Amino acid sequence: MRQKALILRLANTQVARLELGDVSGSAGEDLVLTSEVCWRASAFIHNNARTLRQDLSSAPSEKSSEDIEALVSSWTYAMADLVLSETAAPVLELAANGEQGQLGNAAAAPKRADFEFAMGANPYPTRSSSLMTARKSAPELKRPPSVPSSELMSPPSSSGTDAAPKGAGVPGLPELATYRAELVMLQRKMLEHIAAQSGWRAGWAAMRHRAPSKMQDITLDEDDDHDTTENQQETTSDYVASSLILPALKPAVASESAFQEIYERICDRAMRYYALATQSKSVEVIVGDLAMLRYQQGNIEITEEYIRNVLPGYAADGWNSTEAEVLSIYAECLKRLQRTETYITTVLDLLAKVCVRRMTRKLPHWRFEDAHLDTEAVDVSGLMPEICVMSIRLSHQIVRPMSDYFGGIVLDSEVRHHNDCDGFKLEFRFNSLLADELDFDECKARLVSVNDSAQEVWLSSSGPFCASPGTVKVELQSYANTFGPFYVDQVSMKSGKLVFSHEMQPRSSNPTLVLNDERPALIESQLHKRPFVFVYPPEQALDVDVSTAKNVQLEKPRGLVFRINSGWNEIEDLELRLRPTSAGLRLHLADVAGGKARNGQLEFGSLGQHTNATIEVPYTVEQATPDISLRFEAQYHTPKGIFTLSQAVTLRHRLPFDVEVDDMFRLDTLFSTFAVCSTGGAPISLLDANLHDSSVYEVESPPSMGLPMMVFDQAPANLLYKIRRKASTAAQAMRKDAPLALIMRYIASHNLIIATLKKDFTQHLHNRELGGLFRLLVPLLIERCKQLPKTMFEIAAILGQVSVPSYEDFGWAEIVSLLPDAVQPELSDALRTWHQQASHFKVDFTGAISDEVQGQITIPVEVPTIDFVHSVGLALHESEHDQPHKIQTLRAGKPLQASVSIRSNDRWSSRSVFGSSKSSDAHSPEFTMETQADPDTWLVGGQRRLHFRPSKEQASNFEITLIPIRPGIHPLPSVDIRPAPEVKGEGHNAQTAQSSFSCETYCEAAGKKVQVIRDVRTVKVHIQESSGTASHARPIAGSRAMTDSG
């Protein structure tokens, strides 16, 4: 007691000043020392209360346990009240009441020497910092008007951190507020002990006292509710209250309502102190107690408001047991307030807590006694069915994660087909963690194509189903036919307006940087973890095969051929919707024969079982592209329901070969050479090629063209044709009828090889009684064959056999693993056997399969029109050897006279062919002739360059002089004729423009060569005499040879 008095006097507290007769109250107080007194007093009270209880229990005069607890509680309450009264500081009340203006004077600490304690509070002022600890503001409470709720704590600042509390700059104020709050809470605890003797409890103590300690089996029958309630309630007649209590506490225990009023007042005082000391968590605990008190009193609205403010704190701190109980009471308040949507979401949160704890601790899915399960202290039986029924009245759906309430969510990857109709089925399994049976309206699953994310397939349950606790199996079925790998994207179950959804696709929390087009390992691992289903139709299902038309006419739109096989379906009507996915692809549905086009789709009539139908859809492309892609969906009605078939296809648009034309004009004949080479690397077999006549031109083919022949990319085939004009009048010639038609029949080697392998592979599957997997394995075989290297097709075209890759190289193991276990061994053995037999597979380019895969292309060939064609002849007048079939011999340096003869006509002109007219100069244009020769070989004299006007009746002759100057075999000079530039205007205004006429020149002397020799008459050779053999003597340095020319 003396230490307390000394410290209080040193702290200059109000009580110490009153004892000394100082009533001015103007001197400042040292709150650090005052908080030291509260801290020491708290430890003193706890220790001495324990000692007092032991002494009273061992006293000679026996006392009841109720009297002992009453005496100890009364003494503790009185001592705490004494310390609180002696450490009362005006600055503390000013700070709590928000009177900031008087804090400066009231908090001025007296000047004193340093005073240190062996233990306890720090006597130095606390350091203020701009980095305040983030805290949540206290909720706005409903309390008497004398206690303004806005004074509990200051609101949060705009910067995101809480503002400093009132009086935070006063040294020792937070510590004093904290220790005084602990003493107030000690008083509340003692008051609760005394009131418990009368059977009165408040706050969380009352709620936990009424709740059972262990989970018990309960019944859902309404008749047993009354008995259960009676067993859980207690009467005040079971309690014995002691009369040995502090007189100041007797009004508080006079009645239960008086106890609750004092309890609330003490809570309010402690909460103010904790708020002043920025102890937000302690404030939330007290608010929770007040919420339970209001719930106990039946004030549902205020209870709901209190709980709504403290729930985020419970969730953030992970208080599972407390949060579950609070959620249970909060849900009950919402239900009584008829807030249906909020009630449903709260119950879902509560059930999620319970189910997650069950899943974590791996408990069974039925209820039993377990004292260690915190969340099971809340009775959640019947809640899920109740909210499912209530959700029907909501205007919108509530979506929750399925994994919060169900575990072991798996969609089986094994595809099962219907026995009598199209479509497929998958089995969906999950474990229900709920304690009740739950009726679901439907279950749906969404599959997304791996190759095309826009293609989706939905599966759904056949109808409502019931999910009992434990493992649940649901059969999901789809009436859609498709082919290819699909990711399991989403699974959802619906009950009322509640939707439980599960996303199968893993989500990446952080973005991944990709450099140099390399896929990071994280993405690869995610793709590998995604559930995967390979979907394929049954063998007898509707089949639609899409390919490009084999008969191609380049002047007309090309076609897409759809071959439809109804299978086992009795189709009443069929709608085919086509959607191009390539840029620039245009489908001309209005020009389709055999179907009715409407709203971008084709409508067909009925088809019987196993009926075939073929339609061709014309299409065009806006720009050259090697491939085209489209997506089609067929919806058809049968007596068994409505079915769909959807598929995305990519087809080759580029022709299997290219054709280049080289034309050579004569006066009355045109020689055209067609160079045919394959495209894409795979060779083609050219079966036949014909250039057909037109109304204007006639064609003469060579006697033998060597067809059929194999055409490669680097080894083109050359086809030469002779073209002449027909003897018809110009008035009868029409420009649209002038083009020739080059018709070629061919076989693409890769198409023949794939078709041959397909036929043999299909036959092998049926022989092994595996025809049911035909629609799965054959498309995969075709896709793998298209990816084979082009060199393999070239070798097959040359040798007549193809080397099929092995079972492992084809990647069959991954596909076989997706099938049922009973089928895998037999299928794997059948595939390995076929690959062994087809290791050297024969390919026949003349068999029945070649007739099915051969194609035909019709290419329109436009014959170019030339205004004038010139034929130039160059003749030498003198030569020593004038034999016609031998090379002429000329002497170097000897001038020769040569005549140039030019014959011209306009038989290949547009005016002559089609009767069109040009300007008046069209009959007498001017041309420029130039003799071109190698200057190191020939010297050209005379009119080397001149202008002339050709005449169709007679030839134009010109004389030139040629002098060969270099011995050897050389070609004769050539003559080039071009249209002369046109001069417009006269005098200084004359301008030269390019001529509008075209011409071709054929030099008859092109390719002819002459031999130029020196004119040698005598040769003198001086040989030095030597003793050696003359035939082996070498000339000395002074010897020389001389050549004389005459």
From TrEMBL:
Any one GO CC term of this protein is: cytosol
Q: Which InterPro entries does the record associate with it?
A: DUF7077 (IPR055505), NTS_TR130 (IPR056916), TRAPPC10/Trs130 (IPR045126), TRAPPC10/Trs130_C (IPR022233)
Q: Which GO terms describe its biological process?
A: early endosome to Golgi transport; intra-Golgi vesicle-mediated transport
Q: Where is the TRAPPC10/Trs130 C-terminal domain?
A: 860-1013
The UniProt record lists the DUF7077 domain at: 540-650
Q: Where is the composition biased (Low complexity)?
A: 148-159, 910-919
Q: Which Pfam families match?
A: DUF7077, NTS_TR130, TRAPPC10, TRS130_4HB
Region: Disordered; residue ranges are 126-169, 910-936, 1026-1046
Stretches assigned to the Trs130 NTS domain: 180-344
What domain of life? Answer: Eukaryota
Task: Please report the name of this protein according to its UniProt entry.
Answer: Trafficking protein particle complex subunit 11 domain-containing protein
**What organism does the UniProt record list as the source?**
Hortaea werneckii (Black yeast)
